[in-house]
Design goal:
It is built from ten helices and eleven strands. It is α+β, with helices and mostly antiparallel strands. The protein has one domain. Strand 10 and strand 11 form a beta hairpin. The N terminus is likely disordered.
Length: 322
C-alpha cells in the first residue's frame, strides 16, 4: 500500500505575484513558473475522536489495551538512519564531473533559464549568518523524501561548486509515493562535506527517502526557520526546501519543477547540462545562476572568475538590495 503523502505542492500560477521582498512591497508579476515546495498539511482528526465513536468509558479502555497489543505486535524494528544513509551510493564520477563543471558558455547562454528571481531580501538589519570559520554561511534545510528538494539540489550543487568542493556526496531519490512525484533522482547532503575559501555550507537533511529521521536543526538553525520560513519571505510556512544565504536572502522552494526529471536517471539528467537548449538544463542551470549571484553578494564578488562572468554579474544587478 502506498504511504499517504504528508505533503502538498503549492504552485503560484503564472501572472500572480510571488511573496514580497520586504513588508509592504511586491515583486512584479512574472510569466515564469513559480517556486515549488513541499509543505506540511493539517492531518484530519482521527475518527476515534468523534463524539459518537464510543458508548462507554469501559469500552474505550478495553479496546485501547487491545489496540496497544496489536500495534506492538505489528511494529517493525526501528531502522537505523545511519544504515539507511550508508545504502546510498557515492555519486558517480561522471555525474559529479557534469554537475560541478557546467561550461561557462552554456551557463551564459542559459542565463536565468526562465526562472524568476527567487531571492527574497531580508528586511531590517539582521546579524550576518556566518559559519565556524567566520565566513558567510549558506544554510539549507530539506529532506531526502522531498521531490522538490530533489530537484533543487541539482542547482545547489552546481552553484556551490563554483565556490568550493564537495566531498563524499551521495546520490539518492525522493520517496516512492505515486501521488508525490516519486523517485526523483538527486543527491543528498547527508554525510557529505564541503570546503571553500569563500563561504561555509550548513545542510540539514531531516529524513531519508523512507521518512526515517536523519538530522535535526540546531536551536540557532531552527530559529532561522521559524523567523524566515514564513511570510513575507515565503508564501507558505514551514515548507522545504528552505535556504538562508548569510541572513541577507531567503530562498523558499525549488526553481526546478521535479516533474521535468521524472523517469530520468542521474546520468541522463547530468548529460542535459551540456546542452543550452535542453528544457531540463535550462531551469536547473538558470536556478543555479540565481543562487550563484546571491552568494556573490555575500562574498564581495569573490572569486572574480565566478562573480564577474556572464550571466552572474547581470543577475546580481537584478537582485533587490537587503
Amino acid at each position: 500500500m502506498a504511504r499517504p503523502s504528508k505533503r502538498r505542492r503549492e504552485n503560484v500560477p503564472a501572472g500572480r505575484s510571488v511573496p514580497s521582498r520586504t513588508p509592504g512591497s511586491t515583486r512584479p508579476a512574472s510569466s515564469t513558473p513559480s517556486r515549488y515546495r513541499t509543505q506540511r498539511v493539517q492531518v484530519p482528526r482521527p475518527w476515534w475522536q468523534s463524539p459518537w465513536a464510543w458508548g462507554s468509558a469501559a469500552t474505550v479502555v478495553v479496546l485501547a489495551v487491545v489496540v496497544v497489543f496489536i500495534v506492538l505486535g505489528l511494529q517493525p524494528a526501528p531502522k537505523s538512519s545511519t544504515a539507511s544513509s550508508s545504502s546510498n551510493q557515492l555519486a558517480p564520477a561522471s555525474v559529479l564531473a557534469a554537475v560541478t563543471g557546467v561550461s561557462p558558455s552554456v551557463s551564459s547562454t542559459i542565463g536565468a533559464g526562465g526562472v524568476a528571481d527567487p531571492l527574497e531580501a531580508i528586511s531590517g538589519s539582521p546579524s550576518a549568518l556566518t559559519g565556524s570559520g567566520g565566513k558567510p554561511e549558506v544554510f539549507y534545510l530539506g529532506a531526502d523524501y522531498c521531490p522538490y528538494c530533489a530537484a533543487e539540489r541539482w542547482s545547489v550543487v552546481i552553484a556551490l561548486s563554483r565556490f568550493g568542493t564537495f566531498s563524499n556526496l551521495h546520490i539518492t531519490k525522493s520517496d516512492s509515493n505515486p501521488d508525490d512525484i516519486p523517485n526523483t533522482n538527486t543527491f543528498t547532503f547527508y554525510g557529505s562535506s564541503y570546503s571553500s575559501s569563500y563561504l561555509d555550507f550548513a545542510p540539514i537533511e531531516t529524513a531519508d527517502r523512507n521518512d526515517n529521521p536523519l538530522q535535526k536543526p540546531t536551536a540557532a538553525e531552527q530559529a532561522l526557520v521559524t523567523t524566515y520560513d514564513t511570510t513575507p519571505y515565503s508564501a507558505t510556512t514551514g515548507g522545504i526546501p528552505f535556504q538562508d544565504l548569510g541572513n541577507r536572502y531567503i530562498l523558499s522552494g525549488s526553481g526546478v519543477n521535479p516533474e521535468l526529471l521524472q523517469g530520468m536517471s542521474w546520468q541522463q539528467i547530468a548529460a542535459t547540462l551540456t546542452d543550452a537548449t535542453s528544457t531540463v538544463a535550462q531551469p536547473i542551470i538558470g536556478n543555479a545562476n540565481w543562487i550563484t549571484a546571491g552568494i556573490c553578494k555575500l562574498t564581495g564578488d569573490q572569486p572574480g572568475s565566478v562573480c564577474s562572468a556572464a550571466p552572474i554579474a547581470s543577475l546580481e544587478g537584478q537582485i533587490a538590495s537587503s
